[in-house]
Design brief:
With 109 residues, the chain is α+β, with helices and mostly antiparallel strands. The chain has two helices and five strands, in the order E-E-H-E-H-E-E. The protein is globular and about 35 Å long. The relative contact order is 0.29.
Amino acid sequence: MDTMVKITYIENDGKEHTVEAQPGISVMEAAVNNMVPGIDADCGGACACATCHVYVDPTFAEKTGTMESMEESMLDFASDHKPESRLSCQITITEDMDGLVLRLPRTQG
């Protein structure tokens, strides 16, 4: 069995949801599979809606990779855009992301 990766999603009000996810799926899929509130994922992970917006903890910025131009364009539609903003559908989980911390914006879209 592959190693599972722990990811903590922190809602805007501070409530934490820690889930275990399989490397190879997206951070968005891990949230949806575990019914984490605050990740709407209206487009199902096609990088077409910005409703899976998260803030990546700075200590994990390098491990989550660089964003492509399409993701950057979609983030223009996200509420409360910050330098650490990413679309969770565009971050593929790897084993070295164990302990990843993501904060959720007040609203999606």
